Amino acid sequence: MAIGSVRDMDVVLIPGFWLDASSWAQVTPVLEEAGHTVHPLTLPGLESKDANRSEIGFADHVSAVVAAIDALPGAVALVGHSGGGSIASGAADARPDRVAHVIYVDSGPISEGGAINDGLTAVDGEVPLPDWSEFDESDLAGLTDELRDEFRARAIPEPARVTSDRAHLTDERRYRVPSTVISCTMPQQVFDQLIEQGHPYVAEFARMERRRMVELPTGHWPQFSRPQELGAAIVAALADAP
Q1: Is the model's pTM score more than 0.90?
Q2: Locate the AB hydrolase-1 domain: which residues (predicted)?
């Protein structure tokens, strides 16, 4: 299947935990200026702070991305930030013939039977944004006090089942989908060492037949701390798939 021009791709943007489509607001102009058509998503349960998300799970978020893929006419690129990277890999497993490239922003693909992060504390079926003290300083790099306040004000509790449900992947054609990691908190040397050691954190990515890792040093939320640079890194990855 022809994937179209790299200068005119449909790009589906998948937010990480606690975020909706608006979290990509400073990144999308960079992609649009490069000629791409951008589709930032708000995943089920993240529509508002008052939404009922108690029954929403990992598969529901994957289904929402698959529906976005199916609504578009040709091949698409998926960009997933943090937990959204796991959702992107689930969608690539469901539609390996439609996904031209998956770009993982400080994240990576999930493995069969894995959970995104089942160590987060759930309250009444949802996971509020934790206190900043629960994050590593490397995660928070680049987030000024003002950006932290803005992030917390906009944060929406994540459906608890999305964080803890086990992923079920069925199509090994997903390993043929070009995959790029834009790493913000881990240097390439460390990343490469983990792959050489067969570390489970990178095991699924290591199985990708066409893969690349690039660095964008900042904290875990580059869409806030370095949005223009993140957009440029995504554009560069789309122009030169591994």
Answers
A1: yes
A2: 11-230
